[in-house]
Design a protein that fits this description.
The protein contains eight helices and 54 strands. Strand 29 and strand 30 form a beta hairpin. The relative contact order is 0.14. The strands form eight sheets. The protein has a 33-stranded mixed beta sheet that branches. A six-stranded mixed beta sheet has the order 12-17-18-22-23-32. The two termini are about 50 Å apart. With about 950 residues, the protein is mainly β.
Amino acid sequence: MLSFRGMILTATALAGIQGTAFAQTATPSADAPTQTASGSDSSDIVVTGIRSSLRNAINVKREANAVVDVITAEDVGKFPDRNVAESLSHIPGVSIDRRFGEGEKVAILGTDPALNRMLLDGHALASADWGGNDNDPSSRTFNYSLLAPELVDRLEVYKSPEPRIEEGSLGGTVIVRTRRPLDLAPNSIFASGGYTYNDRSEKGNVRGSGLYSWHNEADNFGFLVAATYDKQALTRAGVEFFGYERGDERFFQTQKNAKNETLRGADGRPLLINDASGQPLLQNTSATVTGGTRQDLANAYLPFGINYAYFQQSRERASVSGTVQYRPAPNLTLALNGLHIDGNYNNYSQSMYTIPGAWTGSVLQTANVANGVVNSASFAAAPNQSAQLDTLVRKTKLKTDNLNFFADWEGDDGTKINFAGGWSKATGGRNPEYLFNVQTKLPFNYAFTPTSATVNFTGDLTNPANYFTNPNNNPAQIEGRPVVVNGQQLNGAQIGGLDYSVTTDRDIFGGYDATIPVEFGPFKQILIGSRVTDHVNRIDGRGINTYKTSSQTANQLGVTTLVTPGGVFDGSGGMGNATQYLNLPEQAVIDILANSINSPLVTKVGASTKVRETVIASYVQANFDEGGLRGNIGGRLVYTRDQSNYAVTLANTVTPVPVPTTTTTDYLKFLPSVNIAYSITPEFLVRGSVARVISRPRYQDLAAATSLNDITLDGGGGNPNLKPYESTNYELTAEWYPRAGSLIAVELFRRDISNYIINTRTNAVFFNSLQNRLTTYNVNQPINGGAAKVNGALVSGQTEIWGGFGIQANYSYQDSSTSSVDSSGAALNLPYLSRHTVNVIPYFESGIFQARLSYNYRSSYFRTIGRLNSREMVAPYSQLDFSAGVNLTKEITLSVNAQNLLDETYYQYNATRDRPTAFYKNGRTYAASVAVRF
C-alpha cells in the first residue's frame, strides 16, 4: 500500500503543478529570464541550467512520434545525478534496485532489468558484471554504474518501439546519446575535480573528469576527447537468511527403513516417531517448546541459515572516450567513436553464519513458535559445528571497449542513407576469488522480528582459538579427477580454494538505414534498414582446491587476526555478539591458502559456458503526418540463431566428469508496430501505440551447466531450448503543454506477455565433494510456460513556478498477474515491479545559485525465487538526495551533493514480513566538486 507520506507528497506536488500551469497559461512568470541570444528575436527566451535541461527534454518528448521520456544534460559535463541509473529513476515508470547502495540496472514499466536494453548512440554495447551481484549474471542489460554521467548528452527512454529501433526490450529501451564535436563550439573545455565520502565506510575518495572539443573554421572536421575518474568505498553490513525449512526432519526423530533411510509420506515429508500422546519425539527429548505443541514445531518453518554479512568494496572507474567527425562534402558526414572503461570492483566479503537445523538440530534446547515460524531457539554445543566463517576476497577488473563507425549521407531531395558498423568487448567476473573458511562449535541462540535479528554465542566469538579448519579428511578430487600429491591421491579436508570465473562479452554489428521522402497521401517518409549482429557471451571457469591434512585452530595459522569493527552493524537490524567476530585481513586469507596444500589449476569444464548468437534483422517503417495526425507504422523481421556450449554434470554419479555438450536453436519473428500522435490543440495531444516485441533469455539461462553449493545444498542450471519472451504492448497517453517548461501527462500501458520464463526447483542427487557422498540438492532451472500481464497508469507533471522555483513530480501505479506460483501455490508477481512509485523533485534556480531535492519512494516488490523456494520480496524503500551549485564566476562552478540522506535499511523477506531474508545498511554519500567550463 502506498505510504501516507508518499501519497500526500505526490498529490500536493501534482495539484500544485496543475494550478501553476493554469495560472501561467494566462500570465507569464514575472521572474522569467529576459536574456536573449545575440541576433535573435527578443521574444525568444533563453534559459540555462536546470530549466534549460527540462525544457529541452519536454521539446524532444513533444515532437516524438513514439511514447518517449527524456533527460538532458544541464551543460557540458553536467548531468542531474552522479549516477546515470539514479537519473533514469526520476522518469515515470522507471525504477532501480539499491541493494548495493547505488543504482546499477533499471526496470521499466514493471519489467525485469534483464528484459530492457541499453543502446549507446543507438547500438548495443557489450557488458560484463563484477561477479558478486546475483541480480543479473550474464544478462543483456548494462551496469549503469560504469557509465560516467559526464559523457552523456541525453537519455531517451522509448516505452513504445519503432521498427527502426533494435529489438529486445519488453518494458522499454534506453538510448544513451553522447556529444559530437561539430555540435559544440570550437575549443570547448570542461574540467572538474571533487571528493566523495561515505559515512558507513568512513572513507573518502577523489573524482575527476575532463572534456575538450575542437573543430575547424570550415566546420567540417572536429574531434572530441573526454576522460573521467571516480572511486567509491562501499561498506555494507547486514543479516541474511538462507531461506526457510520445516522443523520436522531437523528437530525430530524419524522412522527409518532397514538401510537407515528416513521414511516419507506421499507429500515428501518425513514420517515422525510419536509418543503415547501422539506428539512427535524430539531428538533431544529434554528440549522445551513454547508458543505451541511439538507438532506445531514440526510444522513450523525455521531459518535454514542466518548470516551476519560484512561486505567491503572499492569501486574505481576510469573511462576515456573520443569522437572524430569529418564532413568531406556538405551532404556527407563520417564519424568514428571510441570508448574505453576500466573498472576495479575488488571486494571482500566475510560471512559469519549458522545453519541451525542441519548443524545443531540434535542439540536443540528451546524453541518458540509464532504464526508458524520458529522465531527464536537456543542450542547446546554442536557435535560437529554450530557456525562457519566464510571469507571471500574477490579480485574483479571490469573492462569495456567500444569502437563504432558511422557514415551519414543526405541527398538534395531529403533522401538519407546511414551506414554503421561497430565492435565492443567487455570482460569481468572473479579473477580470482579466494575462499577460506573456519568453523566453531560454540553454543548459541537466535531470535528475530520482521526488522531485526539477534544471535548470541556462548563464548568469545572474537577469539581465534574458538575457530578450527575443516577436520573431515576425504579422498581429494577436482572436476571428477583425483588430486595427486607425491604420487598418490591426497586424503585431506578442503578448507577453501581459488575460483576463476571470467566473463567475456563481445558484440560485432553492421548495417544500414535509409530514409526516402514520399508523397503518398498522409505518408511522408519510408524508412528501411537491415542489420547483422554476431554476439558471443562466454564464461571461462578455472579453479584450485585447497586442503589441510589436519585441522588447525585459527590462532595456529600464522597470520594476523582482527575483529569485525565495532558499530558496523548499527542500524542494520543485526544485534547480539554475532556482530563482532573473527576478522581476517585480505592478505591473511591469500597467505593461508598459499601456505596450504593446493591442487593444480584446472579448467572447470562444468563451470565454463559459451553462447554464440547471430541476429539478422530488417525493417520497413512508414512515417505519416496529416492534419494534426502523425506517427509511424511498420514491422521488423528478426532471425535469431543460438549455439550453446556447456557441460552436463551427471546426477547420481560419484565423482562425475562433466560431459561437454552443444545445443543449437533458431527462430524467426515478425514484430509489427504502430505509433499515432494526434494534436487536439497546439497545447494538447494524445498518443497511442500497439507493438509486438520480444526479449531474449539471459545468456547464462541458455547455457545448461549446473552449479552446486556443497554447503547450502542448492544449485542452479540453464536451459538451451528456451524461447524468447514475447509480448503485445499497448500505450495510451494524454499530454498537455500549457507553456514552455510545463507539462502534465497521463499514461496508460499494458504488457501482455507470453513465453514468460519461470524458474522451477526440483530435488536432484549429485556428488558432494565436501561430504564425499551423493547428496540431495534443491536445483533451480528456467523453463518457458509462464504468461503475464502488466497494467499500469502513470501521472506526471513539471512546471516552473515563480521566484526561480520549479517542480517535477510523478506517480506510477503498476500491477501484474502471472501464471507462475511459488512452492505454496501463491501467485507470483513480476520481478522488480512495485505497485506504487513516487518521485517528487522540487528545485530552485536563480542567478548564480541552483539547488535540487529528489525524493523517491517505491512500494514492496518481488525480486527473485531464492533458496528453498523462498519468494524474495523487498520492503518499501525511500531515498532522498540533494544537490546544489553556485557559479563562482561565469566559468567556475562549485557543487555539492548528498545521496541517500534517509539512510533507510534495505529489508528483504520471504513472502511475509515475519520471515525476513535480509537486512542491509549502505550509508550516506557526500560529494563536493569544482567544475570549469570555457
